[in-house]
TrEMBL record:
One of its GO terms (cellular component) is membrane. One of its GO terms (molecular function) is ubiquinone binding. Belongs to the complex I subunit 4 family. This is NADH-quinone oxidoreductase subunit M. It holds the Pfam family Proton_antipo_M.
């Protein structure tokens, strides 16, 4: 079996084994073993990719193509470049960390881990798909389990949050399907057969009017899951009601499908549509960056603070992609990775704090650094990474984004960049505010009772997220080089 199909087959085998689990211990050990193997698979893929890339200059490597539905020219077509490989590693690490953080899950543990792994299977499939129809199928597989994970294992108004998330994402999927079908029915514009294959469509000159019509539909269809303003409202409610591991996957992995789809499909296949509509979506993205940061300041619930922070940080991803140059695109991909690890770390820490204090309200917390020092110190490190301190992944990402943004010759784009840059200051305000209120100062009522220190499995989940944040910040060049090699064919296609 080829190296990429394993990312679909092995998680499904893990699900089948989980069906036979008869206890919490069995379920979590099977889930742990399965997700550890997935991390090993992603690391093996990285080294295999680097070896193959040194001798192979094809756009996609490890490609495989099998006919699925011949009448509509739908294929099981897969392949990866450096961007896909990096996102597969992110996914495998976040899923493994989510299993560690859910170690004490007692309510239907078998079903919980099955839903978690099915979601990750959809994400894996999405990142390796080269056929638009196949990509859409995996997109839906990734989204649907969220309804169950929030509706069954969530807290607070979980039914409302699950329904809102599902309806908005299904609505976006409907719009996306129209966009994909528009691309498909115009893929034979040069006289060839209709196809869903991304690499084949990229060689076709889709009529300009069709690009102008279907680009915004495809962009919005993908960008909604990436929290594009003003379609972001499903995200904070979903985060607030989701269990900890689900919040980690939701923000750390699932929301990355938006930026990836925009880059891989909408922009690459419809370059004229990109140029025509970029100014409009830059306005929305820049407003989302600012709005998310200011909204985070107004919140007192830790999950809502992190959720609105995600709206701001992912707004930067879309903003950078629309700047249409290699530096900004490099920053967008690194920002996706950086945000994935940072936000998963934050949600893991918030879950740990909630378990010990039974509140997420920062106004009711204080002095936690004295009673849970490891968790508190890690929260500070995550906060410094989020506000872009040098030495962490956030700095590398944001420097590339803002340098690339100012390289754009249009003055209006540079003005938008200034607004986006200002979000850094606002981010520092809400991060330092939370750290000061929750971790520093005298102990408050919720912090007076003795608290359990971080357990081994909680520390394992933390380190899985923390090490890449520091690693990318300290040694980013190898990752940046891998990404830039993969960006080159796409920037040529768009410009």
């Amino acid at each position: 079996m080829d190296i990429l199909s394993l990312f679909i087959v092995f998680p499904l085998l893990t699900v089948l084994v989980l069906l036979g689990a008869k206890s919490l211990k069995q379920a979590r050990l099977i889930a742990l073993a399965g997700t550890i193997v997935q991390v090993g698979m992603s690391v093996n893929l990285l080294f295999a990719y680097l070896r193959e890339r040194s001798v192979n200059d094809e756009i996609m490597l490890f490609t495989r193509d099998l006919v699925w539905f011949k009448d509509f020219n739908i294929h099981y077509s897969i392949g990866v470049d450096g961007i896909s490989v990096a996102l597969l590693i992110l996914t495998s690490l976040v899923v493994l960390a989510g299993v560690f953080i859910s170690w004490k899950m007692e309510e239907l543990p078998r079903e919980f881990f099955i839903s978690l792994i099915v979601l990750s299977t959809g994400v894996y499939g999405f990142f390796i798909s080269l056929d638009l129809f196949l990509m859409f199928v995996f997109f839906e597989i990734a989204v649907i389990p969220m309804f169950l994970l929030i509706g069954i294992w969530g807290s607070g108004p979980r039914e409302y949050a699950a329904m809102k998330l599902t309806l908005m994402l299904m609505g976006a999927s409907a719009i996306l399907l129209v966009g994909i079908l528009g691309i498909y029915f115009n893929s034979g514009a040069d006289g060839g057969p209709l196809t869903f294959n991304i690499l084949e469509i990229a060689k076709v000159q889709i009529p300009v009017e069709a690009q102008k019509l279907f680009f915004p539909l495809t962009f919005i269809g993908f960008a909604v899951i990436g929290a594009l303003f003003p379609f972001h409202t499903w995200s904070p409610d979903g985060h607030a009601s989701a269990p900890t591991a689900v919040s980690m996957l939701h923000a750390g992995v699932l929301m990355k499908l938006g930026g990836y789809g925009v880059f891989r499909v909408a922009m690459y296949l419809m370059p004229e549509g990109t140029l025509h509509w970029s100014w409009f979506f830059i306005v929305l993205a820049a407003f989302g960056v600012i709005y998310g940061a200011f909204a985070a300041i107004r919140q007192t619930d830790l999950k809502y603070i992190n959720a609105y922070s995600s709206v701001s940080h992912l707004g930067l991803v879309l903003f950078a992609l629309l700047m249409l140059n290699k530096t900004a695109w490099n920053g967008a991909i690194i920002q996706s990775l950086s945000h994935g690890f940072m936000t998963a770390l934050f949600f893991a820490l918030i879950g740990m704090i909630y378990e010990r204090t039974h509140t997420r309200d920062v106004t009711r917390l204080g002095g936690l650094l004295k009673v849970i020092p490891f968790i508190s110190a890690t929260y500070v490190i995550g906060g410094l990474a989020s506000l872009g301190l040098p030495g962490f992944s956030g700095f590398v990402a944001e420097m590339n984004i803002f340098v690339g943004a100012f390289q754009h010759p249009e003055i209006s784009y540079r003005i938008a960049s200034i607004f986006a840059v200002s979000a850094i200051v606002v981010t520092a305000v809400y991060i330092l505010r939370v750290v000061g209120m929750m971790l520093m100062g005298p102990l408050k009522e919720n912090s007076l009772t003795p608290m359990e220190r971080a357990t081994w499995y909680e520390k394992a989940g933390i380190f899985l997220m923390l090490l890449p944040i520091i690693g990318i910040g300290v040694a980013p060049l190898w990752l940046s080089e891998m990404i830039l090699q993969s960006i080159q064919p796409f920037i040529q296609g768009v410009l």
